[in-house]
Write a structure and sequence with these properties.
This protein is of the alpha+beta class. It has 2 domains: 5-72, lambda repressor-like DNA-binding domains (434 Repressor (Amino-terminal Domain), Orthogonal Bundle); 89-186, Jelly Rolls (Sandwich). 27% of the residues lie in helices and 26% in strands. The protein contains 5 helices and 9 strands, in the order αααααβββββββββ. Strand 5 and strand 6 (152-155) form a beta hairpin. The longest helix is centred in the first third of the chain and has 19 residues, at 5-23. The chain is globular. Keywords: DNA-binding. Residues 17-71 form the HTH cro/C1-type domain. InterPro entries: Cro/C1-type_HTH, Cupin_2, Lambda_DNA-bd_dom_sf, RmlC-like_jellyroll, RmlC_Cupin_sf, TransReg_Diox_bact_type.
Length: 188
């Protein structure tokens, strides 16, 4: 059986995590404690034997004092980047329904982590929390954004929501129209 893009993704991101962990003088056990993950999982991830969801990558990034975009970034010295349609890093996720794609849109260690979702969950999943701030922009379709505490907002094309990442949040697709959402996450 041949290698897939997902295999290559796992190898490169896992290697980047190992490089950052070692550079910070952390053991697998210490990183696991900081991220709330087992050192066995981290060992497999660093060696490209398993993949991680965006939520797990966020936990690893915070534990390493960096961002998910820094973990996903391809190495380049260029300050200006152009990402064409169909390019970017496809982020494998086990927590999204079939037919949903998640694509990182940054090629360098930027202070903003742009992620594009095509499709999405029709039912609410677990709330997500992270450091920094988040901006959610609906390109097409309709979604419902839910915040812990009972506030819900229905969003359609060109609608934008901004909120602290520490506010528990989640979203789901409304209706049958194809959904595209752009999420921008900062680490401050």
């Amino acid at each position: 059986m041949g290698r897939t893009a997902s295999d290559d993704w796992g190898d490169s991101v896992g290697a980047r995590v190992r490089e950052l962990r070692r550079g910070r003088g952390l053991t697998l056990k210490k990183l696991g404690e900081r991220a709330g993950l087992s050192h066995a999982f981290l060992s497999q991830f660093e060696r490209g034997l398993t993949t991680a969801s965006v939520n797990t990558l966020q936990r690893i990034a915070v534990a390493l004092g960096t961002t998910v975009s820094a973990l996903l970034a391809t190495r380049t010295e260029q300050e200006i980047g152009v990402l064409r349609a169909g390019e970017g890093v496809a982020v494998p996720r086990a927590d999204v329904p079939d037919g949903t794609t998640v694509r990182s849109l940054s090629r360098a260690d930027w202070p903003v982590q742009p992620i594009e979702y095509t499709g999405g969950p029709v039912e609410f999943g677990d709330y997500f929390e992270h450091v920094g701030h988040e901006m959610l922009y609906v390109v097409s379709g309709r979604i419902e954004l839910d915040f812990a505490g009972g506030r819900r907002e229905e969003l359609g094309p060109a609608d934008v929501a901004t909120y602290p990442g520490s506010t528990p949040h989640r979203w789901r697709v409304l209706g049958d129209e194809q959904v595209r959402v752009l999420v921008m996450v900062t680490d401050r």
